[in-house]
Amino acid sequence: MSDYEQPRGKFIGVKKYILSIVAGEPQVEVESKLLSYSIGSLAVLVIATSIAYVTILKGIVNIAAYLPLIFLAILTTVATLFSYNHIRCHRKSMLCMNGMMVGMTIGMMIGFMVGAIIGATNGMFLGSIAGMAVGIGLGLNTGRYSGIMGAMEGVMAGFMSGIMGAMTSIMMLRDNLVLFLYILFGIAIFLIGGLSYMLHREEGSAQKTEMQTNFLNFIAMCVLFSMILMAIMIYGPRGILVYP
Question: Does residue 195 lie in a domain region?
Fold first, then answer.
């Protein structure tokens, strides 16, 4: 039974999709490559950040307290690049309803994650601005592949989530903020993975000819995005209420 004949609402299709990616089967070649790129980029970023921590960043006040949030920034970067490049491979065949889900999911999840990280380290204002900028930009750029409705969904999701992410961090500064963010980010990455399966189920196999990245380009974009986030976290202006 093919993926498209699997009963809806059953986890057997999800299990088959995950196993086929791990095995590198032809129908999920794009997802398999992007997963490999993501794992490799995650390893490179963790190693590079560790080296920077013991050399360049060691003299910064409270830098040790920022390490859990810096790792979340790295996770956000890798998840963003995976989802963006995967969605681009479906851009020529994306239906309107699927495009609305794409714009809403990407705008909401990525905007919330960026807003929460920057909000924790820099305050409500900068966190909201950064979250909205990234969420709206990615939501618009991915949702537009299906037309104006997907684009508007992406803009609205990014607008709301950037503010909500920063607000959540500020409200939980004196509670178990870091633990909560790890739980929240785990759910967000799960939803981004669910979006990948949705596109495979509803749109078919991703078009390999539309994949416009390779391992070096993927790593380069991850390094650039993560450096921007970390530069804002460490050197950006801070509000009155910030972590730690």
Answer: yes
- Tens digits of residue pLDDT in 126-172: 999 999 999 999 999 999 988 899 999 999 999 999 999 999 999 99
Q: Using alpha carbons, select from 141, 85, 137, 134 the residue that is nearest to residue 114.
A: 134
Residue 158 and residue 140 in contact, taking contact as beta carbons nearer than 8 Å = yes
Tally of domains within the chain: 1
pTM across the whole model: 0.93
Query: Which of 202, 101, 108, 218 has its CA nearest to residue 163?
Result: 108
Name residue 82's amino acid. F
Cα three-residue angle 175-179-180, rounded to 5 degrees: 75
Structural domain harbouring 71: 25-235
pLDDT tens-digit readout, 31-80:
999 999 999 999 999 999 999 998 888 878 888 889 999 999 999 999 99
d(CA 224, CA 78): 11
What 8-state DSSP symbol labels residue 90? T
Q: Identify whether 5 is part of a domain.
A: no
In a 3-state reduction of DSSP, which class is residue 62?
A: coil
DSSP state, 91? T
Separation CA 226–CA 213 (nearest Å): 18
Question: CA 19, CA 32: separation in Å to the nearest integer?
Answer: 10
Residue of 122, 127, 186 whose CA lies nearest to 161 = 127
Name the helix (H) or strand (E) containing 142.
Answer: helix 124-143
Half-sphere exposure of 91 (CA within 13 A, CB side): 19
Say if residues 143 and 204 touch (Cβ distance below 8 Å): no
